[in-house]
Design goal:
single chain; alpha+beta; 10-stranded antiparallel beta barrel; 4 helices; 10 strands
């Protein structure tokens, strides 16, 4: 999920070299690709259960919990922002890892079972991107195994400055995600980010800055002695992202890190034109 990515028909970082990159993968490159694929596929087999809130949870604790989950479900397509031609598309598997203090009260009082991997909340998802000529549209679906939790999301990239061999690309990205399938939690995230990127051969480093907004509502079911309790929170967080895309003819690999309250990490392996 080159410098101006698939402007028209072919990525600039490919066109700048005068043709399609045909170099065969070395043994070391194959090992690296296999390692990334193993990491992403590993997130698909993570054990997970639905969220369940303890009646003793406080508003501050619910805020901390919602902040963690909102970063994990944020609909980043895990790639530089920009426009692509109408024939361009990309399909990939991405994984986002957000650090969690599993002993903290905000987590203990919000999750009914252990859904962490080595202290990280891992959320895998399928990402499909399609060029629109003047923009790029990405759609994503995350489904947490052994759970009803799923997240639908999308992002739209609109270039402000279309880069070339000498000029970097500046683009605006809007993103939206909706968490579904959990009776105890409703959550939506929205985001706007400004991306700057420049291709150098098969490599495209990029950086972004923006803000995300989260609307969260948690519910504690009623008992024979207490009514249903509602927890609500709305907040905005700044986001700062750096990433690197390595484009081969087949496949593309992207890694990125995002600083919000803590640093979260993401990786994607994708295939397309």
């Amino acid at each position: 999920m080159g410098g101006t990515w698939f402007e028209g028909r072919m990525a600039p970082d490919v066109r700048e070299r005068g043709g399609v990159h045909t170099k065969r993968l070395s043994t070391q490159q194959r090992i690296h690709i296999a390692a990334v694929l193993t990491l992403l596929i590993g997130t698909l087999s993570a054990n997970a259960q639905d969220f369940s809130f303890d009646p003793g949870i406080t508003q501050d604790e619910f805020h901390e919990f919602a902040s963690i989950v909102s970063r994990a479900i944020y609909a980043s397509p895990v790639e530089p922002a920009g426009s692509r031609g109408l024939l361009a598309f990309d399909v990939g598997v991405a994984g986002i890892a957000v650090p969690v203090d599993e002993e903290a009260a905000y987590w203990v009082r919000s999750v009914s079972s252990d859904i962490l991997t080595e202290g990280y909340l891992l959320v895998p998802r399928l990402v499909v991107s399609k060029g629109l000529g003047v923009a790029n549209l990405s759609l994503s679906l995350a489904r947490v195994p052994d759970s009803d939790i799923e997240v639908w999301g999308g992002a739209l990239d609109v270039p402000i400055i279309s880069g070339n061999l000498a000029v970097p690309t500046l683009s605006l990205r809007g993103a939206y995600a909706d968490l579904r399938g959990v009776e105890e939690l409703d959550m939506k995230t929205y985001g706007v980010e400004l991306f700057l990127s420049k291709g150098f051969g098969p490599f495209t480093p990029y950086a972004a800055a923006g803000v995300s907004r989260t609307d969260a509502e948690g519910r504690i079911p009623p008992t024979a002695f207490t009514p249903e309790l509602i927890l609500q929170d709305q907040f905005e967080k700044e986001r700062f992202t750096v990433g690197l895309r390595f484009s081969l003819l087949f496949p593309k690999i992207v890694i990125e890190a995002t600083q919000s309250e803590d640093i979260s990490y993401a990786a994607k392996v994708s295939f397309g034109l």
